[in-house]
Design brief:
This protein starts with a strand and ends with a helix. The strands form two sheets. It has an eight-stranded mixed sheet with strand order 3-4-2-1-5-6-7-8. The chain has a six-stranded parallel sheet with strand order 11-10-9-12-13-14, with helices on both faces. The protein is of the alpha/beta class. Helix 10 packs across helix 12. It has two domains: 204 residues, Glycogen Phosphorylase B (Rossmann fold, 3-Layer(aba) Sandwich), CATH 3.40.50.2000; 160 residues, 3-Layer(aba) Sandwich (Rossmann fold). The chain has 14 helices and 14 strands. The longest helix is centred in the last third of the chain and has 17 residues.
Length: 391
């Protein structure tokens, strides 16, 4: 009989505004549903929306792809209701996908500490929330909660899922070297049979640049826009993603207005996930000077779309320039960012196609590796004593 995993997701498909964790969980289900049964608790509406998803049944378990999902209005998710939903599933492991979310993580950890939940193993994936960049945002509140949580021993018996060695180190810096952490890379969609089919014109002196992510300080769009200043040539910069932080977007617009006429910037709105690959195929490079990513599904998808990436050094995707698939640049080195953008601007069609094909092959090679699938599976079937619970 397959083990049952109850995933506390916060947001799940059809959500598109909740960022990379949605894809992380979907890829987990798609890759491991033949070995594990997944139950997912998620909001009945997208991030920031007042209305629920159209046509989605709520307050009951419904089949969504290979998982059963319980969609609920989070305003109605009281501690009592949360306890009832969790205890209604005879799960073997409980999987949390945030450290700082109150209703979808903190409240559950507290309920577990108070023994209101059935004693089962709990795994927690902080999804990059312990990176230096992430902790630097609203840092006083985060530091206070961490201090209180450690004093109360809220996470004493919890196992942590880090998706890279870097994230493991970030967790240890915050919680200590004795923290029980397992490393398993994020899984991707299955790209093993995909073929390179990108066909985009590329002339020296012209560059189509794309940014796909949440419009939020963490993703550093304002810096991406500013990097386009003083480039010699014609730039088309298209921005896709939810306007999560409208004040930050206003700051971005001010930078856009300061650009010279050779740079054309457009905000193109939201993308459904099945549209993303087409967007990357229609652009030359992906510009993403993020403050931090624990994985970066969007980077993986850009590479598969044959779109070389120009990213910060705050992600696990490193050594890209040596492999001729992109660039990972020290976040503060604006000169290097501009130099690389100008280099891409100057490429001929033949030079660009070689770079694009390299990016595609590299992205494909790093998708769905069997060792990653095995390590992720072992997170949920590991010895229950190690996971900190009993069955």
């Amino acid at each position: 009989m397959k083990k049952k995993v109850l995933v506390i997701a916060g947001y799940y498909v059809p959500s598109i505004k909740g960022g990379g964790p949605i894809q992380s969980i979907k890829n987990l289900v798609d890759n491991l549903s033949d070995k594990l049964d997944f139950y997912i608790l998620a909001s009945d509406r997208d991030l920031g929306d007042e209305q629920p998803f159209h046509g989605v049944k709520t307050d009951k378990w419904v089949q969504v792809g290979c998982a059963k999902v319980f969609y609920i209005n989070t305003k109605e998710l009281t501690l009592r209701r949360l306890t009832e939903i969790i205890n209604s599933v005879d799960y073997d492991a409980l999987y949390l996908n945030s450290f700082f979310s109150y209703k979808f993580s903190i409240a559950i950890v507290v309920l577990n500490k108070l023994k209101r939940l059935i004693a089962k193993p709990i795994l927690l994936a902080p999804r990059g929330q312990f990176s230096q960049g992430a902790l630097g945002l609203k840092s006083s509140k985060k530091k206070l909660y961490i201090k209180v949580a450690k004093a109360l021993g809220l996470y004493k018996d919890i196992m942590w899922h880090a998706t890279t060695e870097t994230e493991k180190n970030d967790i240890e810096i915050v919680l200590g070297k004795n923290t029980n952490i397992k490393v398993a890379n994020n899984l991707t969609a299955d790209y093993r049979r995909i073929k390179y089919d990108k066909d985009i014109e590329k002339y020296p002196g012209e560059l189509k640049v794309v940014f796909v992510s949440r419009i939020h300080q963490m993703k550093n769009l304002k810096k991406a826009i500013a990097l386009l200043k003083d480039l010699d040539g014609k730039v088309e910069f298209n921005i896709y993603g939810p306007l999560e932080d409208k004040e930050y977007w206003t700051e971005c617009e001010q930078v856009i207005n300061s650009l010279s006429q050779n740079v054309e910037v457009e905000y193109r709105g939201l993308l459904d996930h099945d549209e993303i690959m087409g967007v990357f195929k229609d652009h030359h490079v992906f510009l993403f000077p993020t403050l931090g990513e624990n994985f970066g599904h969007i980077i993986s998808e850009a590479l598969i779309g044959g779109c070389p990436v120009i990213i910060s050094d705050q992600t696990p995707w490193r050594g890209l320039e040596e492999l001729s698939v992109g660039w990972d640049i020290v976040l503060s080195d604006e000169g290097k960012f501009r130099k690389v953008l100008q280099h891409c601007m100057n490429l001929s069609k033949e030079e660009y196609k070689s770079l694009s094909m390299n990016a595609f092959e590299y992205g494909k090679k790093h998708s769905n590796r069997q060792d990653d699938i095995r390590k992720t599976y072992e997170l949920f079937v590991y010895d229950t004593e190690v996971l900190g619970g009993t069955t």
